[in-house]
């Protein structure tokens, strides 16, 4: 395996860059030095890392929507409409661009023009190119992040960072396993080392770009330790390439104790692993994603899901929260529905801001559980990689040591099966080949047995299916009817 | 009772895997032979699988909003490939934005789909309709 977690040399980067920039015509004319000058000239108010650092200092939770449409002027109108209601802005990239299907994206742009409405589920930044992307940044006052799901995001990164976007979501695992079917993990990790190196090069020129591994993965009953391991690995890979501003993410599970413990343990484990690997000079923040699974169709009910997530984001001490909308059950929201999600979230954040969740032995226990799980799996990852985290990650997925439930990628084992316990926390029903300590596994079994007894049924796959649909049918736990 | 083979998949560049796994599970439990192509399936892959397995139905899912682009033309390609009796279903969040379902249904019926389902459809009911439609077509 040629893969290694080692800073790319300038020669290797430049040689690869020439190829990358030729993959679509808009890559021509994107100049790194010009990008640095443009970034350095941006006002502080547009810098993502500065907004995060300020929020960290003040103990505030910032809110950020998802949003993106096919055409530039409409995209600007959408973001300008949302801007007063949020702290941080996104540009969500469409699904064709995510798979480098730029011809399909071009067709989507053409059909959207003809239809007079966006037929794409996001903003095709590569097709629009540098100058048009800069028009987006220039029309806004707040920092803008690229949010996507792209296994090979090298050209997208070159264009959007040169265009003044100041944060870049994704990673070689988190933008492969939940977003692709047949992309080899080794390749996507390698391609993301390029993206991380690009961010590192900007950093070396005094431009801090925020890097955020995508926390929620498949968004479906993902146990905290699974997403924490991926977040930590991608954090380590990014730090090695010279990134200095890392935001680790987690998707809401729904149980208050588990969600608060998840963000706390994520932050502490991040520092633990980053420092153990010798990195000291970095800024770490966290992001909490409001419920990523199925939503109720009823908009009033959807607001409750949004509000509960907002409360958890604030109580857990996350640096920012990614906001859902009352249209979530139907897919892409209108700008009005998007704003409603932000307003509902802001109301909760403001009400919870001064409150501190009391010190609790139950939360401490859950934090300790997650930490033991993560340490056990990470130890195996390093062992499989002979100390190299990139190699270890690839081998760990091959071996089923890292295993994301309900993910589409064929390089993911899919043997680990989660289910909720009697209080709604996500537990391990089938562990697959994930090396959790015996007593930890026994604890999960015991918690699931409590629920099985309460429901008078054996824990089978139907229980998992019931859990997947539960929130869209107004409950956290999928109890039998 | 039934001897139905149905090709199942999520069309286009759509990676939504969860519903696909549940559909597979639920339809299999209803006695339908499911040929599950998983996510990110092209129109040709659906048709090739139907030809190879002699499937009586193709069940197309789309969740991410590009359904209007991805699903158009499948009926025509089925006819070109000699699948003149195949039952075509489509379901999910088929368009961008929250639109009236009757409007969405008309749009996709116009593309040649026999039935159009919202994401909230009861899967048992859907399986029963499939059995009826296949019986009526053969």
UniProtKB/TrEMBL annotation, chain A:
GO MF, any single term: methylaspartate mutase activity
Q: What keywords would UniProt list here?
A: Cobalamin, Cobalt, Isomerase
Superkingdom, taxonomy of origin = Bacteria
What EC identifiers does the entry list? 5.4.99.1
Specify the signal sequence span.
none
Which Gene3D superfamilies does UniProt cross-reference here? 3.90.970.10, Methylmalonyl-CoA mutase (3.20.20.240)
One GO BP annotation is: L-glutamate catabolic process via L-citramalate
The record's catalysed reaction(s) read: (2S,3S)-3-methyl-L-aspartate = L-glutamate
Quaternary structure annotation from Swiss-Prot or TrEMBL: Heterotetramer composed of 2 epsilon subunits (GlmE) and 2 sigma subunits (GlmS). GlmE exists as a homodimer and GlmS as a monomer.
**Protein role:** Catalyzes the carbon skeleton rearrangement of L-glutamate to L-threo-3-methylaspartate ((2S,3S)-3-methylaspartate).
Q: State the protein's name.
A: Glutamate mutase epsilon subunit
- Please give the organism: Propionivibrio dicarboxylicus
Q: What is the lineage of its organism?
A: Bacteria, Pseudomonadati, Pseudomonadota, Betaproteobacteria, Rhodocyclales
Q: Which gene encodes it?
A: glmE
From TrEMBL, chain B:
Query: Its Gene Ontology molecular function terms?
Result: cobalamin binding; metal ion binding; methylaspartate mutase activity
Q: Which CDD domains match?
A: Glm_B12_BD
Report the domain of life of the source organism: Bacteria
Q: Where is the B12-binding domain?
A: 3-137
Q: Which PROSITE patterns match?
A: B12_BINDING
Give the keywords, sorted: Cobalamin, Cobalt, Isomerase, Metal-binding
Which InterPro entries is this protein grouped with? Cobalamin-bd (IPR006158), Cobalamin-bd_sf (IPR036724), GlmS (IPR006394)
Q: Which residues bind adenosylcob(III)alamin?
A: 13-17, 93-97
Q: In which pathway does it act?
A: Amino-acid degradation; L-glutamate degradation via mesaconate pathway; acetate and pyruvate from L-glutamate: step 1/4
Single Gene Ontology BP annotation: L-glutamate catabolic process via L-citramalate
Against Pfam families, the record matches this protein to: B12-binding
- EC number(s) in its UniProt entry? 5.4.99.1
Q: Which reaction does it catalyse?
A: (2S,3S)-3-methyl-L-aspartate = L-glutamate
What is the enzyme's main class?
A: isomerase
Needs which cofactor? Answer: adenosylcob(III)alamin
Query: Metal-binding as a keyword?
Result: yes
Give the protein family. Answer: Belongs to the methylaspartate mutase GlmS subunit family.
Role of this protein? Catalyzes the carbon skeleton rearrangement of L-glutamate to L-threo-3-methylaspartate ((2S,3S)-3-methylaspartate).
| Assembly and interaction partners | Heterotetramer composed of 2 epsilon subunits (GlmE) and 2 sigma subunits (GlmS). GlmE exists as a homodimer and GlmS as a monomer.
This protein is called what?
Answer: Glutamate mutase sigma subunit
């Amino acid at each position: 395996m040629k893969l290694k977690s080692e800073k790319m040399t300038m020669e290797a980067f430049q040689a690869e860059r020439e190829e990358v920039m030729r993959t679509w015509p808009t890559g021509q004319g994107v100049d790194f030095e010009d990008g640095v000058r443009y970034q350095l000239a941006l006002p502080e108010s547009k810098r993502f890392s500065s907004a995060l650092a300020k929020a960290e200092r003040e103990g505030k939770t910032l809110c950020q929507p998802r949003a993106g449409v096919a055409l530039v002027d409409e995209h600007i109108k959408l973001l300008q409409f949302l801007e007063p209601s949020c702290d941080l802005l996104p540009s969500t990239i469409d699904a064709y661009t995510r798979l480098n299907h730029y011809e399909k994206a071009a067709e989507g742009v053409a059909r959207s023009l003809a239809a007079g409405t966006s037929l794409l589920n996001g903003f095709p930044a590569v097709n629009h190119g540098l100058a048009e992307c800069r028009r987006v940044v220039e029309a806004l006052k707040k920092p803008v992040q690229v949010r996507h799901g792209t296994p090979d995001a090298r050209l997208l990164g070159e264009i959007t960072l040169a265009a003044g976007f100041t944060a870049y979501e994704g990673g070689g695992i988190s933008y492969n396993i939940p977003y692709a079917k047949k992309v080899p993990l080794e390749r996507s990790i390698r391609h993301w080392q390029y993206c991380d190196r690009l961010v590192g090069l900007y950093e070396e020129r005094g431009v801090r770009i925020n890097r955020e591994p995508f926390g929620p993965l498949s968004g479906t009953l993902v146990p905290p330790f699974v997403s924490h391991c991926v977040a930590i690995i991608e954090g380590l890979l990014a730090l090695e390439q010279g990134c200095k501003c890392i935001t680790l993410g987690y998707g809401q599970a729904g149980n208050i104790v588990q969600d608060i413990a998840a963000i706390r343990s994520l932050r502490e484990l991040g520092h633990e692993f980053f420092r153990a690997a010798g990195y000291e000079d970095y800024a770490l923040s966290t992001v909490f994603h409001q419920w990523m699974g199925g939503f109720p169709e009823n908009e009033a009910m959807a607001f409750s899901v949004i509000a509960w997530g907002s409360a958890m984001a604030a109580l857990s001490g996350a640096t920012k929260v990614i906001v859902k909308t009352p249209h979530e059950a139907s897919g892409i929201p209108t700008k009005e529905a998007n704003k409603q999600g932000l307003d509902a979230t802001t109301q909760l954040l403001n009400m919870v801001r001064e409150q501190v969740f009391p010190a609790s032995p139950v939360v401490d226990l859950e934090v300790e559980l997650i930490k033991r799980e993560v340490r056990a799996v990470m130890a195996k990852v390093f062992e499989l990689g002979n100390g190299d985290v990139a190699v270890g990650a690839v081998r760990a997925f091959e071996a089923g040591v890292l295993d994301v439930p309900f993910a589409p990628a064929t390089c993911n084992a899919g043997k680990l099966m989660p289910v909720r316990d009697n209080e709604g926390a996500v537990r391990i029903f089938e562990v697959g080949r994930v090396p959790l300590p015996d007593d930890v596994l026994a604890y999960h079994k015991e918690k699931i047995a409590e629920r099985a007894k309460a429901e008078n049924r054996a824990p089978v796959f139907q229980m998992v299916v019931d859990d997947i649909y539960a929130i869209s049918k107004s409950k956290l736990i999928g109890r039998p009817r | 009772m039934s001897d139905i083979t149905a090709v199942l998949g999520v069309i286009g560049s759509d990676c939504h895997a969860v519903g696909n796994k549940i559909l597979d599970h639920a339809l299999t439990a209803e006695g339908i032979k499911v040929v599950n192509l998983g996510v990110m399936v092209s129109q040709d892959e659906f048709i090739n699988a139907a030809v190879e397995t002699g499937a009586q139905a193709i069940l197309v899912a789309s969740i991410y909003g590009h359904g209007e682009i991805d699903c158009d033309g499948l009926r025509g390609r089925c006819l070109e490939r000699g699948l003149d009796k195949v039952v075509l279903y489509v379901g999910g969040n088929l368009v961008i934005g929250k639109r009236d379902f009757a409007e969405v249904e008309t749009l996709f019926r116009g593309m040649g789909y026999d039935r159009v389902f919202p994401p909230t459809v009861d899967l048992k009911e859907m399986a029963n309709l499939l059995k009826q439609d296949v019986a009526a077509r053969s």
